[in-house]
Design a protein that fits this description.
- The termini are far apart.
- The chain is about 5% helix and about 45% strand.
- The strands form two sheets. Strands 1, 4, 6, 7 and 8 form a five-stranded mixed β-sheet that branches.
- The longest helix is centred in the last third of the chain and has 6 residues.
- It is mainly beta and about 140 residues long.
- The chain contains one helix and ten strands, in the order βββββββββαβ.
């Protein structure tokens, strides 16, 4: 029987803020350790998150082929029209190194017209490092 690997989900609050740049965060992960970035979203507004630099990633492999995340509606007893939920983006680091992922909150209608300015942007600097364990024998 194959063991299931746990996927660590990171939210804006659980990421380390990069003090030098606005809307830039840092995260350290290990190679081949699947993880997800989760951001608040509300597709009923006509906006959704897009992985803007999907095609230029070399260290991280995104689960999505089209740069879109998985929308998860809010957990309420009755689904309320227009209630915000979250979008999740899944990645697997394939080798060690550092890479920036850029997530942009963009409007669908603006994209069709070519007026595509993101409403919000999050940059996350991902450092993929091997876990080093030092054994000390006394």
């Amino acid at each position: 029987m194959e063991a299931k690997s746990e996927v660590k989900i990171y939210t804006k609050k659980s990421l380390e803020k990069d003090g030098t740049k606005e809307n830039t965060y840092k995260l350290k992960v290990q190679p081949n350790s699947k993880f997800a970035i989760q951001l608040k979203a509300n597709p009923s507004t006509g906006f959704n998150w897009i992985l803007a630099n999907r095609d230029s990633l070399n260290i991280l492999t995104p689960a999505s082929k089209d740069g879109k995340g998985i929308y998860i509606p809010p957990e309420v007893s009755e689904l309320i029209a227009g209630a915000p939920g979250v979008e999740q983006y899944f990645f697997t680091p394939k080798k060690t190194g550092t890479e920036m992922i850029k997530l942009e909150y963009r409007g669908v209608e603006n994209r069709k017209k070519g007026e595509d300015m993101p409403m919000a942007t999050y940059n996350i600097l991902i450092s993929v490092e091997c876990l080093v364990i030092i054994w000390q024998f006394c």
